[in-house]
Each structure stands twice: as C-alpha cells, then as structure tokens.
C-alpha cells in the first residue's frame, strides 16, 4: 500500500507519460486530437484509468478510442520504464464527458445572455401600463380612509395588522 500523496504523484506522472506518448510516439492515423484530462490510480497501484477528450465528431472519438486501445501495450511499457515500478499498472482509457458538458453549458449560458440582451433592448423606452408606482403608501391610505374612498367590506372590522382587528 502507498499513501495517497504518492499515489497522486504517480497518477500525475502516468498522465504526463501518456500525453507525451500520444503527442510524439504513437503514429496511428485513427488517433485524433486527444487531450489527457486526468489519471486516477487504485490504492494498490494495480490499475490506472486515463481520462481523455477528443476534439471532433463521434466517429473521430470512436477512431481515437480504437487507436488508444491498440496502443495500450506500448504506452504501458513506456509508463513502466519511466516510473520504475516493479508492477506497471494496467491502463484503462476512458472518455471524459465533462468538457463536452461544460461546452454545452457554455452554449446555454451564451444563449441566455443573448435573450437577456434582446429583452433589455425591447424594454428600453417602455413604460409600465399603470401608475409608475402601483403601491399605496401609508399616508395615501390615511387620506383615502378619511375621504371615504374605501368602503368597508361587509362583516369586517378595521384592522391595524393583517388578520387582527383593531379593537
């Protein structure tokens, strides 16, 4: 067993090695624009999961996944050579959907901003349908009561607070 900090360091090193291999050594034409986003390793250091994204279509993503799968042995050998571990962890490549989700959310936010701007443009120069201030102020309410503008409702007594009579 190894402590978490050392395991994290090893995962980071594996990520670096894999990224360098994909950039310089793996010449598979199916391999698209792949970015290694994260690597996680189990506590016993037997298995490492390498998360990646592919810029492009679903077909390019599938081609890249196949290329990674076929290059797995070569990449694992290099990871073993560069880390010097007695047992090189098995590598699992997993597509990372997070950047795609983030891109989708960014698109939604941009759309919402555009709609807000459109509403703001339409609202410029617009006026409210009723009075500018539709709320009654306490001093206006007193004047209205004195003038008798508000007839009392049947069976109700005047109140000082909602739900309580003024008796």
Overview features:
167 residues, alpha+beta, 3 strands
Describe this structure in words.
- This protein has 167 residues and is of the alpha+beta class.
- The chain is 50% helix and 14% strand.
- The protein is built from four helices and three strands.
- The protein has helices at residues 4-25, 58-83, 98-123, 138-147, and strands spanning 33-41, 47-55, 90-95.
- A three-stranded mixed β-sheet has the order 1-2-3.
- The longest helix is centred in the middle third of the chain and has 26 residues, at 58-83.
- The chain is elongated and about 95 Å long.
- The model has no long low-confidence stretch (mean pLDDT 83).
Ordered list of secondary-structure elements with their pairings:
Layout: H1 4-25, E1 33-41, E2 47-55, H2 58-83, E3 90-95, H3 98-123, H4 138-147
Parallel strand pairs: 2-3
Antiparallel strand pairs: 1-2
Quick overview of this protein structure:
The protein has four helices and three strands; from the N terminus they run H-E-E-H-E-H-H. By secondary structure, it is α+β, with helices and mostly antiparallel strands.
């Amino acid at each position: 067993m190894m402590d978490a900090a050392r395991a994290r360091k090893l995962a980071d090193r594996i990520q670096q090695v894999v990224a360098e291999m994909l950039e310089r050594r793996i010449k598979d034409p199916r391999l698209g624009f792949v970015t290694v986003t994260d690597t996680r390793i189990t506590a016993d250091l037997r298995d490492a999961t390498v998360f990646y994204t592919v810029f492009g279509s679903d077909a390019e993503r599938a081609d890249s996944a196949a290329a990674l799968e076929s290059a797995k042995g070569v990449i694992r050998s290099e990871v073993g050579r560069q880390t010097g571990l007695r047992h090189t962890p098995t590598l699992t490549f997993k597509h990372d959907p997070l950047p795609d989700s983030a891109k989708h959310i960014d698109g939604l936010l941009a759309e919402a901003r555009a709609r807000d701007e459109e509403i703001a443009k339409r609202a410029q120069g617009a006026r409210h349908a009723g009075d500018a201030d539709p709320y009654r102020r306490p001093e206006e309410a007193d004047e209205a009561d004195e003038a008798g503008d508000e007839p009392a409702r049947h069976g109700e007594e005047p109140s000082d607070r909602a739900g309580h009579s003024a008796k």
